[in-house]
Design brief:
- This protein is an alpha+beta fold.
- The chain has a single domain, classed as Alpha-Beta Plaits.
- The chain contains 5 helices and 8 strands, in the order H-E-H-E-E-H-E-E-E-E-H-H-E.
């Protein structure tokens, strides 16, 4: 029993939430006019964790502010954009971190999601930092192909924990967001 408690404590300490996202920058693809931007703006505005969305029509980008204390779901953002008939060309999440130790190929739980840092070198995140999601449906095909050439982890192709993730205590199939700083 004592060993079980120690293992559970260790597991949760490995994935301690040391940050919270406050805003995001979304790059959308396939937009041709102001009505396209409006469709994405409305779709994002319906998500329960989004406080506000400001569109930059000229650059096909959206500044998103999250509700304080809310659980951010990047897949829901992607689904909203795709549901409006467009694609995500890039998504950057900005949050405030307190003593979050990261290293290359380390999995870290932030909020209720697991993030795999693919390019981090042994460092500690403090203060406001921005991470970029580099999963398949969060980049253009060209950019994802370039990232795929440098990242050898099999989980990058699926966005799900694979045998390469077991070292951090993850079960196969758990959703993982691959990110860069």
């Amino acid at each position: 029993m004592k060993k079980t408690i120690i293992l559970i404590t260790f597991f949760f300490s490995c994935f301690a939430s040391n940050g919270q996202f406050s805003k995001a920058s979304l790059q959308a693809t396939g937009l041709t006019c102001a009505l396209c931007s409006n469709a994405i703006n409305k779709a994002l505005g319906k998500l329960p964790f989004i406080q506000s969305v400001d569109a930059d029509i000229k650059h096909s980008s959206f500044a998103i502010v999250f509700k304080p204390g809310s659980v951010v779901n990047p897949d829901a953002i992607m689904d909203a954009v795709e549901g409006a008939g467009f694609s995500v060309g890039g998504l950057e999440l900005t949050g405030t971190f307190q003593q979050l130790s990261i290293d290359k190929d380390q999995h870290v739980k932030i909020g209720q999601s697991v993030y795999h840092f693919v390019n981090a070198s042994n460092q500690v995140l403090n203060g406001e930092k921005t991470i970029r999601i580099v999963d398949k449906n969060f980049l253009t095909q060209k950019e994802f192909k370039k990232i795929s050439a440098t990242v050898k982890a099999g989980c990058l192709q699926t966005g799900r924990a694979a045998s390469c993730c077991i070292k951090d205590g993850l079960a196969e199939g758990v959703r993982i967001y691959h990110v860069t700083l």
